[in-house]
Design brief:
Length: 125
């Protein structure tokens, strides 16, 4: 289950960004995950819950934006969703396909609270 390693990497990134921005608490983490990465969103959320249990990150909301595997035919230029990993142009049957989306895996946004002397601020970083 590679989702456990991904969950740990996400937590590492969040901790680094919190320190960099002086954040004290995270409320939401937004991810972008491409279909080609073969990440199961439910499994990733479950793994994240496990590694954050009994930590200051317990209860942080994990939002996952899934990006479909998308290709562009080099021969005819048509863009299409690649289904069942079938890298064949639906228009001209060419196998010369460039992958243009679906390989992403990154933290898009972290919504945090930053404590100031007079109040709490909530903002994305």
């Amino acid at each position: 289950m590679h989702e456990m390693g991904i969950a740990q990497s996400i937590l590492d990134i969040v901790e680094q960004e919190m320190a960099r921005h002086g954040a004290t608490k995270v409320s939401t983490i937004r991810l972008v995950v491409g279909e080609f990465r073969a990440v199961v969103p439910h499994s990733l959320s479950f793994c994240f819950e496990i590694i954050t249990k009994d930590t200051p990150f317990e209860g942080v909301k994990l939002e996952i934006e899934q990006v479909p595997l998308t290709g562009r035919c080099i021969d005819c230029g048509v863009e299409f969703i690649i289904k069942e990993y079938r890298f064949i142009c639906p228009t001209c049957d060419s196998r010369e396909i460039e992958t243009i989306a679906g390989k992403e895996l990154f933290v898009k946004e972290i919504e945090v609270q930053i404590e100031t002397a007079d109040s709490h601020q909530q903002k994305p970083v």
